[in-house]
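Q: Is it fine to ask for two folds in a single conversation?
A: Yes, each is treated on its own. Send the first.
Q: Here.
A: Result:
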Amino acid sequence: MSIVTHKASGWSIGSGQPLAVLAGLNVLEDEGLAFEVATELKRICSGLGLPFVFKASFDKANRSSIKSYRGPGMDGLKILAKVKSKLGVPIVTDLHEPAQAEPVAEVADILQLPAFLVRQTDLVIAVAESAARHGALIQAKKAQFMAPWDAKNIISKIAEVAPDVGVILCERGVSFGYNNLIVDMLAIPEMKKLGVPVTIDATHAVQLPGADPRTGGASTGGRRDGVAIIAKSAVAAGADGVFLEFHTDPDKALCDAPSCLALSGADALLATLKALHEAVN
């Protein structure tokens, strides 16, 4: 299996590499919180010797309700640029429209294709072209309706546009009936057969789409206690990296509060995941 490396920062993921950590906030709320979470996660990952990328969305375009908090929009890229510059950490963020690809690639080191949009050809082309121009990587989330082996089409579509751009696949569960997701751990080795590193989005994998009792189904619910279980299971199944979202006060998070973890527990969880990764490999 190949190793994917971001040349500018030296961050790597793949065979023989330490467990990669893509972690941060679900969505940007304010600059202070972004720096607090990024600083703490950088400290933890540095102590554990784990390659760290800070994650935060500037816009959550796929919301259950028009009233749901979406984030600061494109202005959020300024916050991400400050975090990157002052803390010296790579950035990963998602985007939703082809026109966003170039400005996002000017800041982010990993461009993330959302699961619901991963088959949108115009978006994939724009992301691939911008990633190639700026030396960025691409993390593509496998759609909730897609079989793991069908992810080969994501990789080939990117390769036709930008054959030299490194691609990471991300597992985040598959739709199972109404308002539920499941994660088939066999999907991890299946996607690794495609020759790319694979991460697990343990946060979004515990979502209960459209099933938040606090809003009568106007937002997504979640099972926070399941995040660590899924993360550990995926690492044991061979995942090369973990994608996790934290908050200083999860219950007050402005987006997907039921699914995000307390920042205070990040140290213990990441230490456990590191040990599992080393045992498996």
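Q: Second one now.
A: Result:
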Amino acid sequence: MTLGIHNSFPNSTFSWGLGDHILTGDTRFVHSGTTGATTTSEGTPRDPISTLEGATNLSQANDNIVILPGHSETITGVGGITNDVAGLTIIGLGVGTRRPRFLMDGAATVTWAISAADVSIENVVLAAGHADIVRAFNITAAGFHAKNIEFVENTAGENFLIPFDMTSAVANACDGAIIEGCRSLGLDAAATEFIALVEDINRLTVMNNLIVQSGSTDGALIKQATGKDMTLLDCRWNFVQHAMTAGDLLIDNDTTANTGIVAHNRCRHADVTGAHSLIDCDGVGLFDNLSVSTNILSGVLVPAADVNL
């Protein structure tokens, strides 16, 4: 990425050029290699803040945080990082092993909490440092946007159960969430769904994600609580591999008032019964979703294509 920096205006409200992003409002920079204390650092590229939580605590609505390449941080406890500033944009810089990396450790209850509306997070790696971490992101607010986030196991047996858990018990509290370009590469058999929904949700977008795991729970891509609706769902071009032998292989929802589009998704699973239930989400439009349970064949269209009536 190309970074345009105005060194004479630290944390200014001038625009910053950051690759494809133009950031307005205050912009703070984060890097774990800094010698400056969290509360005394200027938050500039030359004097960055040492932790993301420290930068968040100094931010106001619609501010920006840029995490510099090579940043490494350990998160512990419930809400070990809590994004409670509305409109906060967090962008990680770097590719490969230079991407900002957050080790989630200490207990299975460790979480990254999203409690303010319109928080955006891009290009970071979350590594599970404990067995069966219940959820990575605990999301209770609307407008959350996750882009190019990767979930990995720190070592064998350390894993996430649910990467994105929308836990609010208030209907439509998490409306407008966008999960795009993310990768969940935990191979542990305890892994469950990629996205969990506790309540009704409107305008959920799930696009271009890759999930590879050996779990066997219904709804490996999206699982929604009983009696809850997804309206205006946009779910396209997701690739999922898991070990389910039966059940709803990709999306698990039990109502009939859903709306939206589910298209071009691909699912590799272990259901050899021949009666694949790929998507249980009555009311949505289904187009070109492929299902396969063997390594030597390409996917079959599920459900079958309509006839010209």
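Q: Anything structural to flag on that second result?
A: Two points. The chain has two domains: 1-62, 69-301. Residues 52-57 form the longest helix (6 residues).
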